[in-house]
Amino acid sequence: MASSADKCPVDHSAVASSSKPEKCPVDHGSLPSNPAQNADACPVDHGARSSWTNIFGSKGSPHPHTQSNLPTERETSSIPRVDGTNWVYPSESQFFAAMARKNHNPQASDMKVIVPIHNAVNERAWAEVMKWEAGQGGDKCGGVKLVSFKGRPGDRSPKARWKTLLGYTAPFDRHDWVIERCGVRMRYVIDFYTGRSQGPTNGPSFYLDARPALDNWEGVRMRACRLWDTWVGSLWNSSSPPTSKQGSS
């Protein structure tokens, strides 16, 4: 008979379904004037992308500030929207233009490096969110969807501030993503860190710290269960006697 020591201490049946927030989760001040421009938007706030050029851009002399020869092809992400489509990443030309409008001094030659990294990082971010969402019931109603997003590179999360005080490198960017799971909306905080250099030929490395925000009961429940599984579950498994093999010669 299995012991209850490795069982999550939270009573999942007692969790009430969260209602949709009264406030619209989208930052209207950052929306384009033409609604059609937002229909296939990328899940990134491009107004805050100077942090990406600082990390992944060229360190040499400036190149001409032009987007006339940059590709306009766009890549569709694996991240679903609530309308049944998927979010679409910006082209190199759009990425350059978005940064230029914010006076971030982009270099056209950097776009072929930054845009693929940008896309890969966001795919990684969604994969981290889906790890948290596994087993939460989103598959019963068509899967988890990304509702809205906001870049907050200047706002360090409490966890990021604490890690910085302990001597860790500060994150170079932060996103807040709002997802919907069967009518329940959840905010995730994602801190982006640069990893250790793998050498000049391997390109930049990075790692992400994604977790539910602690601004509602559902986020607290999920974080508590993860903590229980990580610490108490591992201690219980390590203290259990090994199972003897049957029929060994």
Automatic annotation (TrEMBL):
<keyword id="KW-0349">Heme</keyword>
<dbReference type="GO" id="GO:0004408">
    <property type="term" value="F:holocytochrome-c synthase activity"/>
</dbReference>
<keyword id="KW-0479">Metal-binding</keyword>
<dbReference type="GO" id="GO:0046872">
    <property type="term" value="F:metal ion binding"/>
</dbReference>
<protein>
    <recommendedName>
        <fullName>Holocytochrome c-type synthase</fullName>
        <ecNumber>4.4.1.17</ecNumber>
    </recommendedName>
</protein>
<keyword id="KW-0496">Mitochondrion</keyword>
<keyword id="KW-0999">Mitochondrion inner membrane</keyword>
<keyword id="KW-0472">Membrane</keyword>
<dbReference type="GO" id="GO:0005743">
    <property type="term" value="C:mitochondrial inner membrane"/>
</dbReference>
<keyword id="KW-0456">Lyase</keyword>
<dbReference type="Pfam" id="PF01265">
    <property type="entry name" value="Cyto_heme_lyase"/>
</dbReference>
<keyword id="KW-0408">Iron</keyword>
<feature type="region of interest" description="Disordered">
    <location>
        <begin position="1"/>
        <end position="83"/>
    </location>
</feature>
<comment type="similarity">
    <text>Belongs to the cytochrome c-type heme lyase family.</text>
</comment>
<dbReference type="InterPro" id="IPR000511">
    <property type="entry name" value="Holocyt_c/c1_synthase"/>
</dbReference>
<comment type="function">
    <text>Lyase that catalyzes the covalent linking of the heme group to the cytochrome C apoprotein to produce the mature functional cytochrome.</text>
</comment>
